[in-house]
Design goal:
The protein is of the alpha+beta class. The chain has a single domain, classed as Deoxyribonuclease I, Chain A. It is about 15% helix and about 40% strand. The protein is built from four helices and ten strands; from the N terminus they run βαβββββαβαββαβ. The strands form three sheets. The protein has a five-stranded mixed beta sheet, with no helix packed on it. Strands 1-3-2 form a three-stranded antiparallel beta sheet, with helices on one face. β6, α2 and β7 form a beta-alpha-beta unit. The radius of gyration is 17 Å and the shape is globular. The chain starts with 8 loop residues before the first strand and ends with a strand.
């Protein structure tokens, strides 16, 4: 999504807002303006001692018509959440539109915590009012060291995932598939790969996943 990729949607984690370490920028707006994403949603998860915060962000070229945050925090643990946006897509030249529901999450470092957080997400019944054909994307930093969260929890909820995990961490020599995406409804995964750009290795300790998705 940086440099050579013409993306319509970006899901980001640990995005700073008014933090001293990042020159007090509201990064969701800075990145949105730099990359041409007019529509943005952001929710701060963690407050920093020196001021500011960081959290999840969704950037889109298509209108974000509503956004909400789903709290996954476990008591006495770092705050975690899922940022949900409903995006209105233009799907053909005649101007026909439909909604895509996007859930951007960042789960904890403990295997036990990740399962609790993902179950808490599913127990919040975020899809209960969706029709079965409604396109839904759940993606982000699962910190899923063992690759078990999707098969154990998301597949029973009707989600498909990657046929083969893609290693994204650490960015300089990736050996762990911590980031992933899952989808259901009238949405098709055409291809997915990790960025090989030098700037991607410098920008984060995770390499970004880049996916081509088709709304059927």
């Amino acid at each position: 999504m940086i440099g050579h990729y013409d993306a319509d949607l970006a899901l980001l984690q640990e995005v700073d807002s008014l933090a001293k370490r990042s020159n007090n920028h509201h990064q969701v707006d800075l990145l949105g303006e730099m990359l041409g994403f007019r529509y943005r949603a952001f929710f701060p998860n963690v407050r920093l001692r020196k001021g500011g915060a960081y959290g999840n962000a969704i950037l889109s070229r298509y209108p974000i018509v509503e956004a909400e945050n789903i709290d996954l925090t476990i008591p006495a643990r770092k705050r975690r959440s899922v940022l949900h946006s409903r995006i209105r897509l233009r799907v053909d030249k005649s101007g026909h539109t439909r909604s895509l529901h996007v859930f951007n999450l960042h789960l904890g470092l403990s295997g036990r915590d990740r399962k609790i957080q993902l179950r808490k997400f599913l127990d919040s019944h975020p899809f209960v009012h969706f029709e079965s054909k409604t396109p839904v994307l759940v993606a982000g930093d699962f910190n899923d060291v063992w690759g078990t969260l999707g098969p154990q929890l998301l597949a029973p909820a009707g989600f498909a995932g990657l046929k083969r995990p893609i290693q994204t961490f650490p960015s300089y020599a990736p050996v762990r598939a911590l980031d992933s995406l899952y989808f259901r409804g009238e949405i098709e995964l055409i291809r997915v790969f990790r960025s090989r750009l030098k700037v991607a290795r410098q920008a984060s300790d995770h390499l970004p996943l880049i996916a081509d998705l088709k709304i059927c």
